[in-house]
Amino acid sequence: MRENKKNEKGRSGHKEQKELQQNELLADAFNACMEEQMSFIPSEREIARMHEFSEEFKTSMEHLCRTNGKLKKQETSAHEFVFRFHNIAACLFLMLLIGGICVGGYLISENGFPGFGGGSAAQSTGTAEDRAEASEEIPEETAGASVSEEEMQFAGEAVQPAPEQELPSGTEEVRTLVSSPVLDREAQEVKVTIGNLGEETLSYSKDIELQVCMDGVWYIVPKKEEGAEETEDIQEVKLEAGMAQDEEVWLSDYWLDYEAEKYRTVICVDGIFFGSEFRFETLEEGLEEALEINSDISEQ
Amino acid sequence: MLLYLSMLDTQEEKDKFTEIYEQYQHFCWYVANQLLGDAHLAEDAVQDAFFALARHLDKIEDAESPKTRKFLMTIVKNKAVDLLRKQHGEVSVEELSCEPADQGQDILNTYITKENYNHLISCILELDEMYRVVFEYKFVHQLRDTEIAELLDITPKLVNVRYFRARKKLQQMLEKEVSGRAGK
Question: Would you state the CATH architecture of domain A174-285?
Answer without folding.
Answer: Sandwich (2.60)
